[in-house]
């Protein structure tokens, strides 16, 4: 028997899923998507539930990120799961494990950051738990949301012939974390506008709720999820559940000018690799029938709608397992992108 490093996150989830066969009344979707989904009798809505955890020295370092930024980020990554289902957030539960040496200003800053998104997205904080930690800070958030029945977007609905679309830009958060790690300093300490932009994308992600809700009203949008572990890790989750393959055009990936500029100054950084493998962008990844492409919303910063980019196409599955075919300018690229593994 191997270790968790060998098993990986997906293997652990599959093992737990096999052990839990009990189903609750009204359950529409369980383990395997961005949120669990259930309904109450003849209610018009599905209700959404998701949980995410952030651990010090795994997801953040206290010396790099302000308490405000950590509070904001803790809720943002959970709101992103609601956005991925096309839903509207309702409430959250917050649990904290905190070492006793933290001062009151830390929890005040954290609370202010959490409250900012709570108020912005009308998401009530209903409770949680607080315990003493003998070491690192641990933050766990459970988010509740809802979506009209028929408007929900799930991972298993991609169809052969669909176009693959992504919101915003990819790779910025990955670069931001690397900059933070190498300098081990907070955002206020960094000088260039380029690095400030990349750090901001890492520290303060923007959940794409407005976009997710707009996409939920388009029947031609089939499968959808958010990008938390990187394109190379997350796209296979759609492909596997939908039993399809995909072709991705690397030259079509949306890469910001800031990421290109920073990579041009570093010999070992590749903007393409970061866009494919870098996680924590929390952009939406979805498939849509080509005939419905003109129904996609136009970018509108005021409404929170980012630019959308077609990066590939869904195809019929040719083998026993789904495959991503990488192309650049319509020519096949033989390249091994390494997926993220939480236990590596």
Keywords:
7-stranded mixed β-sheet; 2 domains; 32% helix; 6-stranded mixed β-sheet; globular; 344 residues; Phosphoribosyl-aminoimidazole Synthetase, Chain A, domain 2; 13 strands; 60s Ribosomal Protein L30, Chain: A; alpha+beta
Q: What is the terminal-to-terminal distance?
A: 17 Å
Q: Structural class of the secondary structure composition? A: alpha+beta
> Approximately how much helix is present in the residues?
25-40%
The CATH homologous superfamily of the largest domain is termed: PurM-like C-terminal domain
Please describe the biggest sheet, giving its number of strands, its sense, and whether it closes into a barrel: 7 strands, mixed
- What is the top-level CATH class of the largest domain? Alpha Beta
Show unreliable segments: 186-190
Number of domains: 2
Tertiary shape: globular
Round the Cα radius of gyration to an integer and report it: 20 Å
Compute the average pLDDT.
Answer: 90
Spatial order of the strands forming the largest sheet: 8-10-7-11-9-12-13
- For this structure, the CATH topology of the largest domain is Phosphoribosyl-aminoimidazole Synthetase, Chain A, domain 2
Beta fraction: 25-35%
CATH architecture of the largest domain: Alpha-Beta Complex
């Amino acid at each position: 028997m191997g270790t968790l490093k060998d098993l990986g996150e997906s293997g652990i989830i599959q093992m737990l899923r096999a052990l839990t066969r009990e189903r609750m009344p009204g359950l529409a979707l369980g383990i395997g998507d961005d949120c669990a989904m259930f309904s109450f009798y003849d209610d018009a809505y599905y209700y959404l539930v998701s949980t995410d955890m952030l651990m010090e020295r795994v997801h953040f370092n206290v010396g790099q990120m302000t308490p405000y930024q950590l509070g904001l980020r803790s809720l943002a990554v959970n709101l992103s799961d609601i956005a991925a289902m096309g839903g509207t957030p309702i409430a959250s539960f917050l649990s904290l494990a905190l070492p006793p040496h933290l001062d009151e200003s830390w929890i005040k800053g954290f609370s202010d950051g959490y409250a900012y998104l709570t108020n912005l997205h009308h998401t009530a904080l209903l409770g949680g738990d607080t315990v003493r930690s003998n070491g690192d800070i641990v933050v766990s958030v459970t988010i509740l949301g809802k979506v009209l029945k028929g408007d929900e977007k799930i991972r298993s609905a991609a169809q052969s012939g669909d176009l693959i679309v992504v919101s915003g830009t990819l790779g910025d958060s990955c670069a931001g974390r690397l900059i933070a790690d190498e300098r081990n300093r907070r955002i206020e300490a960094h000088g260039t506008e380029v690095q400030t932009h990349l750090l901001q994308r890492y520290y303060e992600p923007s959940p794409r709720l407005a976009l997710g809700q707009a996409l939920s009203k388009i029947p031609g949008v089939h499968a959808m999820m958010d990008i938390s572990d990187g394109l190379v890790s997350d796209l296979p989750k759609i492909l596997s559940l939908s039993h399809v393959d995909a072709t991705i055009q690397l030259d079509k990936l949306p890469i910001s000018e800031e990421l290109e500029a920073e990579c041009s100054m570093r010999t070992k950084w590749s903007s393409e690799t970061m866009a494919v493998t870098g996680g924590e962008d929390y952009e939406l990844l979805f498939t849509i029938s080509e005939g419905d492409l003109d129904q996609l919303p136009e970018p509108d910063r005021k409404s929170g709608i980012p630019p959308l980019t077609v990066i590939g196409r869904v195809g019929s599955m040719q083998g026993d397992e789904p495959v991503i075919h990488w192309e650049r300018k319509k020519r096949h690229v033989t390249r091994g992108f390494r997926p993220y593994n939480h236990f590596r």
